[in-house]
Amino acid sequence: MRKFDFSPLYRSAIGFDHIFNLLDSATRVEQGQPSYPPYNIELLDEDHYRITMAVAGFTLQELSIVSEQNTLLITGKKAEEKEQRHFLHQGIAARSFERRFQLADHIQVVNASLENGLLHVELVREIPEAMKPKQIPIGANNMDSNLIEQNS
Protein backbone atom coordinates (compact mmCIF):
# COMPACT_ATOMS: atom_id res chain seq x y z
CA MET A 1 0.00 0.00 0.00
CA ARG A 2 1.21 3.51 -0.75
CA LYS A 3 2.14 5.86 2.06
CA PHE A 4 0.62 9.33 1.88
CA ASP A 5 2.30 12.37 3.41
CA PHE A 6 -0.30 14.65 5.02
CA SER A 7 2.24 17.10 6.47
CA PRO A 8 1.57 19.85 3.84
CA LEU A 9 -2.07 19.86 4.92
CA TYR A 10 -1.09 20.44 8.56
CA ARG A 11 0.55 23.74 7.56
CA SER A 12 -2.50 25.27 5.89
CA ALA A 13 -5.54 23.70 7.56
CA ILE A 14 -6.39 24.64 11.12
CA GLY A 15 -8.63 22.51 13.30
CA PHE A 16 -8.63 19.50 10.98
CA ASP A 17 -5.77 17.68 12.68
CA HIS A 18 -8.05 14.93 14.00
CA ILE A 19 -9.17 14.16 10.43
CA PHE A 20 -5.57 13.99 9.22
CA ASN A 21 -4.68 11.69 12.12
CA LEU A 22 -7.56 9.39 11.15
CA LEU A 23 -6.45 9.35 7.52
CA ASP A 24 -2.88 8.71 8.55
CA SER A 25 -3.81 5.80 10.81
CA ALA A 26 -6.16 4.35 8.18
CA THR A 27 -3.44 4.32 5.54
CA ARG A 28 -0.82 2.85 7.86
CA VAL A 29 -0.46 -0.91 7.53
CA GLU A 30 -0.21 -2.35 11.01
CA GLN A 31 0.85 -5.88 11.81
CA GLY A 32 -1.19 -7.79 14.35
CA GLN A 33 -4.24 -5.54 14.16
CA PRO A 34 -6.80 -7.00 16.56
CA SER A 35 -9.60 -8.99 14.97
CA TYR A 36 -11.26 -10.12 18.19
CA PRO A 37 -14.12 -9.87 18.77
CA PRO A 38 -15.67 -9.81 15.30
CA TYR A 39 -18.12 -6.97 14.66
CA ASN A 40 -20.43 -5.41 12.05
CA ILE A 41 -21.21 -1.76 11.45
CA GLU A 42 -24.62 -1.17 9.86
CA LEU A 43 -26.18 1.94 8.35
CA LEU A 44 -29.84 1.62 9.31
CA ASP A 45 -30.91 4.88 7.66
CA GLU A 46 -29.40 8.27 6.95
CA ASP A 47 -28.67 9.15 10.60
CA HIS A 48 -28.90 5.79 12.44
CA TYR A 49 -26.11 3.25 12.85
CA ARG A 50 -25.65 -0.03 14.71
CA ILE A 51 -22.48 -1.77 15.85
CA THR A 52 -23.02 -5.48 16.47
CA MET A 53 -20.22 -7.30 18.25
CA ALA A 54 -19.99 -11.06 18.87
CA VAL A 55 -19.26 -11.39 22.60
CA ALA A 56 -20.27 -14.99 23.30
CA GLY A 57 -19.48 -16.00 26.86
CA PHE A 58 -19.46 -12.46 28.31
CA THR A 59 -22.01 -11.31 30.87
CA LEU A 60 -23.39 -7.78 31.27
CA GLN A 61 -21.09 -7.24 34.26
CA GLU A 62 -18.00 -8.11 32.17
CA LEU A 63 -18.79 -5.59 29.39
CA SER A 64 -18.30 -1.83 29.43
CA ILE A 65 -19.21 0.88 26.90
CA VAL A 66 -17.77 4.40 27.27
CA SER A 67 -18.33 7.29 24.86
CA GLU A 68 -15.97 10.24 25.28
CA GLN A 69 -14.84 12.98 22.87
CA ASN A 70 -15.73 11.31 19.55
CA THR A 71 -14.37 7.93 20.69
CA LEU A 72 -16.43 4.88 21.58
CA LEU A 73 -14.60 2.35 23.75
CA ILE A 74 -16.04 -1.13 24.21
CA THR A 75 -14.21 -3.41 26.63
CA GLY A 76 -14.76 -6.90 27.89
CA LYS A 77 -12.92 -8.20 30.94
CA LYS A 78 -13.40 -11.86 31.74
CA ALA A 79 -13.85 -12.57 35.41
CA GLU A 80 -11.52 -15.06 37.02
CA GLU A 81 -13.08 -18.50 37.03
CA LYS A 82 -13.49 -20.08 40.45
CA GLU A 83 -12.99 -23.61 39.23
CA GLN A 84 -10.13 -24.84 37.09
CA ARG A 85 -11.33 -26.30 33.79
CA HIS A 86 -9.40 -28.67 31.54
CA PHE A 87 -10.28 -28.34 27.85
CA LEU A 88 -9.55 -31.01 25.28
CA HIS A 89 -10.25 -28.34 22.63
CA GLN A 90 -10.99 -24.66 23.27
CA GLY A 91 -12.37 -22.94 20.18
CA ILE A 92 -14.45 -20.31 21.96
CA ALA A 93 -12.27 -17.34 22.81
CA ALA A 94 -12.60 -16.23 26.40
CA ARG A 95 -10.03 -13.45 26.49
CA SER A 96 -10.46 -9.85 27.45
CA PHE A 97 -10.64 -7.24 24.71
CA GLU A 98 -10.69 -3.51 24.05
CA ARG A 99 -12.12 -2.08 20.82
CA ARG A 100 -12.10 1.64 19.91
CA PHE A 101 -14.27 3.33 17.30
CA GLN A 102 -13.82 6.91 16.12
CA LEU A 103 -17.16 8.72 15.97
CA ALA A 104 -17.93 11.67 13.73
CA ASP A 105 -19.16 14.93 15.21
CA HIS A 106 -22.69 14.81 16.64
CA ILE A 107 -22.85 10.97 16.77
CA GLN A 108 -24.38 9.86 20.05
CA VAL A 109 -24.79 6.41 21.60
CA VAL A 110 -28.49 6.03 22.35
CA ASN A 111 -28.88 2.38 23.36
CA ALA A 112 -26.99 -0.84 23.98
CA SER A 113 -28.30 -4.36 24.46
CA LEU A 114 -26.92 -7.88 24.84
CA GLU A 115 -28.93 -10.61 23.12
CA ASN A 116 -27.92 -14.17 22.23
CA GLY A 117 -24.21 -13.43 22.59
CA LEU A 118 -24.39 -10.30 20.41
CA LEU A 119 -23.80 -6.81 21.80
CA HIS A 120 -25.82 -4.22 19.86
CA VAL A 121 -24.83 -0.56 20.19
CA GLU A 122 -27.26 1.91 18.60
CA LEU A 123 -25.90 5.26 17.41
CA VAL A 124 -27.64 8.31 15.98
CA ARG A 125 -26.42 11.53 14.39
CA GLU A 126 -28.12 14.44 16.19
CA ILE A 127 -27.28 17.71 14.49
CA PRO A 128 -27.99 20.74 16.74
CA GLU A 129 -30.73 23.10 15.54
CA ALA A 130 -28.20 25.93 15.16
CA MET A 131 -26.27 23.86 12.59
CA LYS A 132 -29.23 22.67 10.52
CA PRO A 133 -29.94 24.39 7.20
CA LYS A 134 -32.41 27.27 7.47
CA GLN A 135 -34.77 28.55 4.82
CA ILE A 136 -34.39 32.32 4.51
CA PRO A 137 -37.54 34.10 3.32
CA ILE A 138 -37.07 36.54 0.47
CA GLY A 139 -38.90 39.81 1.00
CA ALA A 140 -38.90 43.39 -0.25
CA ASN A 141 -35.61 45.21 -0.09
CA ASN A 142 -35.74 46.90 3.30
CA MET A 143 -32.75 49.10 2.51
CA ASP A 144 -34.67 50.94 -0.29
CA SER A 145 -37.62 51.69 2.01
CA ASN A 146 -35.26 52.99 4.73
CA LEU A 147 -33.59 55.37 2.24
CA ILE A 148 -36.97 56.72 1.06
CA GLU A 149 -38.02 57.42 4.67
CA GLN A 150 -34.74 59.25 5.41
CA ASN A 151 -35.05 61.48 2.32
CA SER A 152 -38.63 62.47 3.15
UniProtKB/TrEMBL annotation:
Family: Belongs to the small heat shock protein (HSP20) family.
Keywords assigned: Stress response
Name by which UniProt lists this protein: Heat-shock protein
InterPro entries with a match to the protein in the record: A-crystallin/Hsp20_dom, ACD_IbpA/B, HSP20-like_chaperone
Acetylation found in the keyword field: no
Organism: Zooshikella ganghwensis
UniProt-listed Gene3D superfamilies: 2.60.40.790
CDD domains per UniProt: ACD_IbpA-B_like
SHSP domain residues: 30-141
